[in-house]
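Supplementary Methods. Inverse-folding protocol.

Structures were first reduced to a discrete structure-token string of length 227. This string, shown here, constituted the complete conditioning input.
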């Protein structure tokens, strides 16, 4: 840990905020890895997804994936939900660091934030964090990050999607999961493939008479048969 007390106030102020944001980012990336493991995504797919969803949505996804996981016991699922809720509840702290104006505090050894609240009423609450407050909150971020990493390690690779698909097979979808008779949807490295057996429409091949992209002329009737 940096010796923040040894820094001058002008240097210490952004250093404290930066240290908090760094610890938060290190914690939050574990949510992406939980989504990767639970959904059976590759590296590129993981970060296309995680970059385009808000933190709130990442938490919803992770809570659902841990609930579905067969690798976690009931007690572990309760603990995982509480952990993810704690990350969610701490989001306003991260937003304050990222969005609110701040400067060296004249009242302490830390940082004063210009917090603005305007949801129905307008207020400017005084918010001052000391060095010890920053160190306490950074330690919580680090702890949450370690626990999220442990949760990721407990979740078996690509099992949730496979088990979910397997649970649908009694409904007549004809699903093959990594082997056996393949009559419908197949889960593989490229995702889900195959026809949905719930679709009553005929599955016409390209070039067939029933293919709308390749219409066929009507059959010609023998003139003699019309007489």
């Amino acid at each position: 840990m940096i010796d923040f007390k040894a820094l001058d106030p002008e240097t210490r102020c952004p250093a404290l905020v930066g240290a908090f944001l760094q610890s938060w980012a290190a914690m939050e990336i574990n949510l992406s890895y939980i989504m990767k493991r639970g959904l059976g995504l590759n590296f590129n797919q993981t970060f296309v997804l995680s970059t385009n969803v808000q933190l709130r949505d990442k938490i919803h996804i992770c809570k659902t994936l841990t609930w579905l996981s067969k690798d976690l016991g009931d007690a572990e699922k309760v603990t995982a939900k509480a952990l993810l809720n704690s990350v969610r509840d701490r989001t306003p702290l991260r937003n304050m660091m990222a969005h609110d104006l701040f400067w060296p505090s004249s009242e302490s050894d830390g940082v004063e934030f210009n917090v603005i609240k305007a949801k129905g009423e307008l207020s400017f609450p005084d918010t001052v964090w000391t060095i010890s407050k920053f160190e306490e909150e950074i330690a919580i971020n680090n702890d949450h990050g370690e626990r999220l990493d442990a949760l990721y390690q407990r979740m078996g690779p690509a099992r949730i999607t496979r088990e979910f698909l397997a649970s649908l097979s009694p409904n007549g979808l004809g699903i093959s999961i990594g082997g056996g008779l393949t009559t419908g949807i197949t889960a593989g490295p490229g995702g889900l493939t195959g026809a949905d057996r719930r679709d009553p429409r005929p599955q016409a091949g390209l070039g067939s008479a029933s293919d709308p992209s390749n219409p066929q002329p009507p059959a010609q009737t023998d003139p003699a048969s019309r007489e």
